[in-house]
């Protein structure tokens, strides 16, 4: 139940922020919040992360659907029942669903979080992208510290012990 609540919360936050940006910003409009560091900039991303596979909306939509199905149907194969893996599942599910909703409705993903760090400009992203990265990060890190991780039960891991 916890992953579902996290998925719903992230999807709702993602969609609410994108609705706000679409309503209050013109395309490519940028508002500086922290000078030289953080702006809100409305862009449309027709691809995946950093515009990879731009214009491949059908492929990315199908990939998102497949990933959601795989994550939820096979979750017991690669997740354990700890709070960190449940949180990771919810973050990844919410992020994938948030961006999927954009692709289905508009054919692109709304991005608006725009960072500049030490003279470098990070590609613009959104709440869903953040949730996916956090979810994957939590999953990877927790896999190192969790002896009960499902992958630690593999024959290769058993030989190491």
List keywords for this structure.
161 residues; alpha+beta; four-stranded antiparallel β-sheet; 15% strand; disordered C terminus
The helix tally amounts to 6
Shape from CA axes?
A: globular
In whole angstroms, the N-to-C terminal distance is 34 Å
What is the element string, with H for helices and E for strands? HEEHHHEEHH
Strands, count = 4
Oligomer: single chain
- In round numbers, the mean pLDDT is 87
Biggest sheet, spatial arrangement of strands: 1-2-3-4
Strand content bin: 5-15%
Radius of gyration: 18 Å
Main sheet properties: 4 strands, antiparallel
Helix content: 55-70%
How would you describe this structure to a colleague?
With 161 residues, this protein is of the alpha+beta class. It has one domain. The protein contains 6 helices and 4 strands; from the N terminus they run αββαααββαα. A 4-stranded antiparallel β-sheet has the order 1-2-3-4. Strand 1 and strand 2 form a beta hairpin. The two termini are 34 Å apart.
């Amino acid at each position: 139940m916890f992953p579902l609540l996290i998925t719903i919360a992230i999807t709702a936050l993602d969609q609410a922020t994108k609705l706000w940006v679409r309503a209050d910003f013109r395309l490519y409009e940028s508002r500086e919040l922290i000078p030289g560091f953080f702006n809100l900039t409305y862009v449309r991303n027709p691809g995946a992360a950093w515009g990879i596979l731009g214009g491949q909306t059908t492929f990315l939509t199908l990939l998102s659907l497949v990933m959601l199905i795989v994550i939820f149907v096979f979750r017991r194969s690669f997740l354990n029942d700890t709070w960190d893996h449940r949180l990771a599942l919810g973050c990844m599910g919410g992020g994938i669903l948030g961006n999927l909703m954009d692709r289905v409705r508009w054919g692109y993903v709304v991005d608006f979080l725009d960072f500049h760090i030490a003279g470098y400009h990070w590609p613009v992203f959104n709440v869903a992208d953040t949730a996916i990265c956090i979810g994957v990060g939590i999953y990877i890190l927790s896999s190192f510290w969790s002896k009960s991780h499902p992958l630690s039960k593999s024959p290769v891991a058993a030989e190491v012990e």
